[in-house]
Amino acid sequence: MQLDDRELEQIADKVTEKLIASRQTFIAPRLMDVPQTAAYLGRSVSSVKHLIAKGAIPVTRLDDKVQVDRLLLDQLIKATTV
What we know:
Layout: H1 5-24, E1 31-32, H2 34-41, H3 45-54, E2 60-62, E3 65-69, H4 70-81
Antiparallel strand pairs: 1-3, 2-3
Helix pairs in contact: 2-3
């Protein structure tokens, strides 16, 4: 079965709509860099760097980059708010 241009455009439009919808429900990555962590926490990059320097946020160094584990961060937040 061969599709004509109009049918292909309709399929492309549906795929585009689904991709846009999936971006809105995107789950944050497990490992985040400092800017991503700042956005996740709703803080500035400098405040996140300060918290990391104080040892308040646990980090992992991966390829010489500081990475924050989102799941560990969520657990830490949960433990401190209970």
